[in-house]
C-alpha cells in the first residue's frame, strides 16, 4: 500500500493542470494568514457563497457536510449540539468566534453548544482537523472550528433576508457595513423563531425555540502600521424542551441562554513590516438558566483572556510566530445547592515556518501551559507541505500533540465532580494530498489520520450516588477522509466528502475495551450539486448519508444510520432582489442522532433576499 501510495502521488504531481486554489488564505492553522500551499494540516473552508447557497439554518448542518465531522443534537432546533472531529469527544473541539475562544467554562468538558449558533450573519467557517495545542492550547485535541462574520464592504453595502415555513418558522437577518477614512465596520442582527416539534420521540407537545443574535465590528486604521480592532457578538435564546430521565419524556421544561462575546485588539507593525504584533483582550460570558417543575437552576461561565502574538519575518523564506496568553476561566452554579470555581492558565508558545527551497514549507513549534490546578504541560507540533508543481499538487504531513485540562464543572461539581482527574493528552498524525486538474475544474483531497489519547475523560454513571467523571486509560481513532470538487462547466458545481472513522475505547481491562466510542458513525458521505441556468435560476440538492452508531459506551443502544436529502432553489428578480426556497428531508426520513430525541421530517421554507 505504501508503494502504491507513493506511485499515486507521483502520478498526480505529473498530471497537467492549469491552476488551483493555491492563493486561498487560511488563518486557522497558525492563527495568522497563510497561503494554503504553506499549510501542512487538513483544513476545509465553508465560504460565504456556500453558506448562502445551501440555505442552512444551523452552522452544525453545514459542518456535517465536511470530511471527518460527526454531530449529535439532543432535542430539535436549538437543542444541545456537539461537534466531533475525527472521532474525538465533542468536548475536544475548540471553537473561535471572530477571534474569541467561546468554549463554555461552565459546560461539561468546556463544551461549545452549537445548538444556538445559527448561520445568521456568519460569512466564513474554517475547520482544522487534528490536534493543535501548540497554537491554541487546551481543548484542540480533535480540531478547531473558526467562525467569522463578514468583513466590512468597501464604501457602503448591506443585505437582508426573510423566510417562512414549516412549524410557523420565521427566519430573518440583516446587516450593513462600510468604510470611510480611517474607520471601517459593520453591524448585523438575526432573528429566528419556530413552534417546533416535540423534543421527545412519540410526543405530541410542540417545543418552540427563539433566537436573537447580533454582532458588530469596528476597525480604526490610524496609520499603515497601527490599527485598533473592536468586535462583539451576542446571542439570546429561549428553548422549550422535554425532561431527560433515561429517555426524554414530555414536560414543560425550558431554558434560556445569554451569550456575550467581546474582542479588543491593537495591531502594530515595526521594522518596515518585518515584525507585526497583536495585543488583545477577549471576554466570554455564558449564562444558562433552566426552568423545571422540580426547581430552577443555572450555570454561568466567564473567560477573560489576555493575548500577545508577534510574527517576525526577516526574509521571505522564514518567519517566527511567538506569543503569550493568560486565561481566567470562572464557573458558577445555582440551584440544588450552589458552587463555583476559578482557574488561571499562563501559556507561552513559539513556531517557525521555513521554506528551504521552492515548493517546500516546514512548520514546527512548542507550547508550554501552566495551569493553576495541574502545573505545567508542554506540547509539540510539526507539519510539512510540498508542492512539486506550483501548487497544483500539495503533499501534506503533520504531527500534533493535544492537551486538555478537565473542566471546572468536571472537577468541582457537587454531584458529579472529581478533583482527582488528570488532563487528557493526545498525539495525532496524518498524511494526505490535495490535487487540482483542468484549470481547477476538478480538485481532490485525501487524508489518512490516527490519534491516540491518554486519560480521556468519561462519565461513569455506576459510581454512587450520582455518577462521577473518571479518566479512561486510552482511546484511539483512525481513518480516512476524502473530498472532491468538480466544476465541469461554469454553471455546475459538485462537491462530495467522505470519511471513515474507527474510534474505539482501548482501556486495558476496562468493561468497554474494544467497544466503539458513542455516537461516532464509522461511515459518512455528503454530496452537493448546484446548477445555475443561463436566465439566473439556481437549483441544488444535498444528500447526506450517515452510518449506524451506538448511543452509549457499552454499545447496547443502536442509533440506525440515515440518509437525508434536501433540495433548494433561488431566482434573482434583479441585481438587488432574489427569491429562494428549500425542502429539507425530502424523503421524510425518521432518524435520531441522540437516543430518544426527535428530528424534523419533511419541511419546506421560502423567502426573499435584498442586497444594496
From TrEMBL:
Keyword Membrane applies: yes
Primary site of residence: membrane
Residue ranges constituting the TonB-dependent receptor-like beta-barrel domain according to the UniProt record: 176-586
Keyword Membrane attached: yes
Places the protein is found: Cell outer membrane
Keywords on record: Cell outer membrane, Membrane, Receptor, Signal, TonB box, Transmembrane, Transmembrane beta strand, Transport
Annotated signal sequence range: 1-19
Bilayer topology: Multi-pass membrane protein
Entries under InterPro entries matching the protein: Beta-barrel_TonB, Beta-barrel_TonB_sf, Plug_dom, Plug_dom_sf, TonB-dep_rcpt-like
Ranges of residues in domain TonB-dependent receptor plug: 37-144
Family: Belongs to the TonB-dependent receptor family.
Protein name from the UniProt record: TonB-dependent receptor plug domain-containing protein
Organism of this sequence: Sphingobium tyrosinilyticum
Amino acid at each position: 500500500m505504501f508503494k502504491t501510495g507513493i506511485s499515486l502521488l507521483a502520478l498526480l504531481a505529473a498530471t497537467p493542470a492549469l491552476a488551483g486554489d493555491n492563493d486561498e488564505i487560511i488563518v486557522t492553522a497558525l492563527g495568522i494568514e497563510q497561503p494554503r500551499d504553506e499549510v501542512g494540516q487538513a483544513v476545509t473552508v465553508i465560504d460565504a457563497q456556500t453558506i448562502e447557497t445551501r440555505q442552512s439554518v444551523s452552522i452544525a448542518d453545514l459542518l456535517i457536510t465536511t470530511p471527518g465531522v460527526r454531530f449529535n443534537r439532543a432535542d430539535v432546533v436549538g437543542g444541545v449540539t456537539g461537534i466531533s472531529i475525527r472521532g474525538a469527544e465533542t468536548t475536544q473541539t475548540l471553537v473561535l468566534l471572530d477571534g474569541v475562544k467561546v468554549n463554555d467554562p461552565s459546560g461539561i468538558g468546556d463544551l461549545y453548544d452549537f445548538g444556538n449558533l445559527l448561520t445568521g450573519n456568519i460569512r466564513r467557517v474554517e475547520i482544522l482537523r487534528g490536534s493543535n495545542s501548540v497554537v491554541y492550547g487546551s481543548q484542540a485535541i480533535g480540531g478547531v472550528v473558526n467562525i467569522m462574520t463578514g468583513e466590512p464592504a468597501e464604501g457602503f453595502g448591506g443585505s437582508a433576508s426573510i423566510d417562512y415555513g414549516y412549524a410557523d418558522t420565521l427566519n430573518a437577518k440583516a446587516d450593513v457595513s462600510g468604510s470611510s477614512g480611517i474607520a471601517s465596520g459593520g453591524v448585523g442582527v438575526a432573528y429566528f423563531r419556530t413552534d417546533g416539534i416535540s423534543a421527545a420521540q412519540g410526543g405530541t407537545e410542540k417545543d418552540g425555540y427563539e433566537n436573537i443574535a447580533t454582532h458588530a465590528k469596528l476597525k480604526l486604521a490610524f496609520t499603515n502600521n497601527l490599527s485598533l480592532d473592536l468586535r462583539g457578538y451576542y446571542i439570546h435564546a429561549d428553548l422549550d424542551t422535554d425532561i431527560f430521565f433515561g429517555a426524554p419524556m414530555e414536560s414543560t421544561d425550558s431554558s434560556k441562554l445569554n451569550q456575550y462575546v467581546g474582542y479588543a485588539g491593537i495591531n502594530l507593525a515595526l521594522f518596515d513590516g518585518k515584525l507585526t504584533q497583536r495585543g488583545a483582550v477577549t471576554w466570554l460570558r455564558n449564562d444558562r438558566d433552566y426552568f423545571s417543575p422540580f426547581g430552577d437552576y443555572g450555570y454561568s461561565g466567564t473567560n477573560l483572556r489576555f493575548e500577545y502574538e508577534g510574527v517576525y519575518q526577516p526574509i521571505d523564506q522564514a518567519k517566527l510566530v511567538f506569543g503569550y496568553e493568560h486565561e481566567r476561566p470562572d464557573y458558577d452554579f445555582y440551584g440544588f445547592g450552589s458552587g463555583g470555581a476559578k482557574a488561571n492558565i499562563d501559556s507561552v508558545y513559539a513556531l517557525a515556518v521555513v521554506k528551504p527551497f521552492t515548493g517546500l514549507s516546514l512548520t514546527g513549534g512548542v507550547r508550554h501551559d501552566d495551569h493553576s490546578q495541574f502545573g505545567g504541560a508542554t506540547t509539540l507540533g510539526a507539519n510539512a507541505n510540498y508542492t512539486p508543481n506550483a501548487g497544483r499538487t500539495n503533499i501534506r504531513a503533520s504531527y500534533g500533540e493535544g492537551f486538555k485540562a478537565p473542566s471546572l464543572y468536571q472537577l468541582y461539581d457537587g454531584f458529579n465532580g472529581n478533583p482527582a482527574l488528570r488532563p487528557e493528552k493526545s498525539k495525532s498524525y496524518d498524511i494526505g494530498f490535495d490535487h487540482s486538474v483542468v484549470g481547477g475544474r476538478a480538485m481532490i483531497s485525501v487524508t489518512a489520520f490516527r490519534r491516540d489519547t491518554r486519560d480521556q475523560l468519561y462519565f461513569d454513571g455506576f459510581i454512587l450516588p450520582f455518577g462521577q467523571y473518571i479518566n479512561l486509560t486510552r482511546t484511539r481513532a483512525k481513518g480516512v477522509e476524502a473530498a472532491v470538487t468538480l466544476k465541469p462547466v461554469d454553471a455546475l458545481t459538485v462537491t462530495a466528502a467522505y470519511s471513515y472513522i474507527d474510534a474505539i475505547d482501548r482501556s486495558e481491562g476496562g468493561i468497554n475495551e474494544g467497544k466503539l466510542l458513542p455516537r461516532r458513525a464509522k461511515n459518512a458521505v455528503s454530496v452537493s450539486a448546484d446548477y445555475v441556468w443561463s436566465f439566473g435560476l439556481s437549483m441544488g440538492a444535498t444528500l447526506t448519508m450517515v452510518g449506524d452508531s451506538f448511543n452509549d459506551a457499552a454499545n447496547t443502544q443502536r442509533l440506525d444510520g440515515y440518509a437525508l436529502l434536501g433540495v433548494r432553489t433561488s431566482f434573482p428578480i434583479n441585481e438587488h432582489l432574489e427569491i429562494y426556497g428549500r425542502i429539507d428531508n425530502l424523503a421524510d426520513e425518521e432518524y435520531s442522532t441522540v437516543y430518544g430525541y426527535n428530528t424534523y421530517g419533511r419541511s419546506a421554507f421560502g423567502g426573499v433576499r435584498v442586497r444594496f
